[in-house]
Amino acid sequence: MKKLENKVAVITGGAGSIGKITAGLFLEQGAKVLLVDLNEESLRDAVTELGTANVKYSAADVTKAEDVQRYVNDAVSAFGKIDIFFNNAGIEGVVKPTVDYPEDIFDKVIAVNVKGIWLGNKYVLPHMNDGGSIIMTSSVAGIAGSANVSAYIASKHAVVGMMRNLALEVGSRKIRVNTINPSPVDNRMMRSLEEGFAPGHAQAAKAELEKTIPLGRYAKPEEISQLVLFLASDDSQFITGTTQVIDGGMNA
């Protein structure tokens, strides 16, 4: 039997690399999936690429309660229930020291990465089946510091705090709540951060970051999706309230 047979999953950040690849893996394992992202065209492309009637999309701004309520309602209307919530949407902000960090960008990062996660939990939970699983995307930036990315660091630490709080609130419903905490992943977000760390020399920044990882490379989005699948499936049925670090030894 497939690991997610007859399960329904909602994935925010669903048009990004981790979200879309995780959706493909969930579909292979028998789930029905609703993808959520801000850009409708990107969502349509993702659904076309995934190529099955078992995936649908809902364009939404995760920082707005009415949009979050709409994507939750879309999931329930399309598939009848929610068993898995991959609360994954996030943005990186800019690379600037605290004294130079633009306040408007700080506010935007906190809105997406903290409020967006919180709103998702708030409105998904009343519709989630008991025994379900919530996986929130934090980062190694949620367990350690790094210079010049204050908003991102603050937001990803906040995700860990929200996870611990929620795991205690919903344990009686046998709903599991965990974070994934990846090291740098080989995707668009890291291209942006590399350029921010070393303008005009992004490839050199990448090489320096890889030196901080004992396994000598960034994570692949596919590797992150395998961890998410584990946490979504019954293979992890006694795991809750944890930070699941996937970092190639970076924080060893």
From TrEMBL:
Pfam families cross-referenced by the UniProt entry: adh_short_C2
UniProt keyword annotation of Oxidoreductase present: yes
GO molecular function: oxidoreductase activity
Tagged with keyword Plastid: no
UniProt xrefs under SUPFAM superfamilies: NAD(P)-binding Rossmann-fold domains (SSF51735)
Keywords noted in UniProt: Oxidoreductase
PANTHER family referenced in this protein's UniProt entry, alphabetically: DEHYDROGENASES, SHORT CHAIN, ESTRADIOL 17-BETA-DEHYDROGENASE 8-RELATED
Family listed: Belongs to the short-chain dehydrogenases/reductases (SDR) family.
Protein name stated in the entry: SDR family oxidoreductase
